[in-house]
Amino acid sequence: MEDAYETWKKRKTPENMSALLAKSKPVINSAIQSYGGMNKSLESQAKILAADAMKKFDPDQGVKLRTYLMSQLQPLIRINRERAQVTRIPERVTLDLYKMKQEERRFHDQYGRGPSDTELSAATGLARKRLLHVRKFSRGEIAESAIATEESGFMPGVSKPDPDTILLEFVHHDLDPVDQMILEHKTGIYDKPVLSTNDLAARLRLSPGAVSQRAKKIAERVAELQNQGLAKEE
User: Fold this and answer.
1) Residue-wise pLDDT tens digits, 95-120
2) Is the predicted pLDDT of residue 75 greater than 50, yes or no?
3) What is the phi/psi pair of residue 158, to 5°?
């Protein structure tokens, strides 16, 4: 992306700007996911914001182009909210949402993956229930689908538990951060979007096979506790 920026800076033509935006697509997609609730209809607006941002970028400020561009795409939060015509977000929620998104980006830059809710809670000081509340606003109060499919379902033969059950929370507590994310995105617990194995593998920078193996072990643990009747005992 930096090479494309230098090319455009030397010769500011529409063609070079188009090439620069093409190279910036991973950052733009990340911004749409972070700020726009994965609303693909925001892509055109995101490109306009990105093009304007490129014209104002100053390399001498010591900020990486990717970091700068992500910060300049934050208006997508407002644009997406206005398009969805949702109620005004309380100021405190807006601040917590900003804190949450900043930490998610910092964590991803450092570790190459998004944080689990446990890690995000520790880093932001926001309780898990607060993260859940704030995340609903970032998605325009639209609930994720709770219907499991062959691709997004947790594991064949294991019924998909309700995301708020004690059973899933019990299992989640004992997992490492990566497995926590797999459980979250395979069941929708804590209001996380249900992801396919391939999408989850890309997010965690693991192979789909590795994600499937981890998910299978987690599912076996869930099934074991289901058979023991843990949920009923609790």
Assistant:
1) 788 888 888 888 888 888 888 888 88
2) yes
3) -115, 115
**Structure letter (DSSP) for residue 153:** S
Looking at the DSSP bridge assignments, the partners of residue 158 are 155
Tally of CB atoms within 10 A around 118: 18
Same domain, yes or no, for 61 and 14?
Answer: yes
How far, in Å, CA of 187 to CA of 162, rounded?
A: 8
As a whole number of angstroms, the distance between CA 3 and CA 204 comes to 27
Residues forming a β-bridge with 155: 158
pLDDT tens sequence across 118-137? 888 898 998 888 888 887 76
Q: Are the C-beta atoms of 57 and 17 separated by less than 8 Å? A: no
CA 166, 171, 175 angle in degrees (round to 5)? 145
Alpha-carbon distance of 75 to 50, in angstroms, equals 11
Same domain, 128 and 95: yes
Render the burial of 56-78: b for 16+ CB within 10 Å, e for the rest.
Answer: eeeeeeeeebbebbbebbeebbe
* Calpha distance 72→179 (Å, rounded): 33
Amino acid code (one letter) for 126: L
Give me the residue label for tokens 């809710």: 117
Number of domains in the chain: 3
The phi and psi torsions of 155 (rounded to 5 degrees) equal -165, 135
